[in-house]
Amino acid sequence: TKRVRVRHFAQAKQAGTKIVGLTSYDFLTAGLFDQAEVDFLLVGDSAGNVVFGYDTTVPTTTDELIPLARGVVRAAKRALVVADLPFGSYESGPDDALHTAVRFMKESEVHAVKLEGGVRSAAQIERLVQSGIPVMGHIGYTPQSEHGLGGHVVQGRGDARESFLADAKAVEAAGAFAVVIEMVPEALAAEVSQMLTIPTIGIGAGRHTDGQILVWTDLLGVATGRLPRFVRQYASLGQEMIESVSTWRDDVRSGAFPDESHVFED
Ligand code: KIV
Ligand code: NA
Question: What residues have CB less than 8 Å from 70, skipping those under 6 apart?
Answer without folding.
Answer: 107, 108, 109
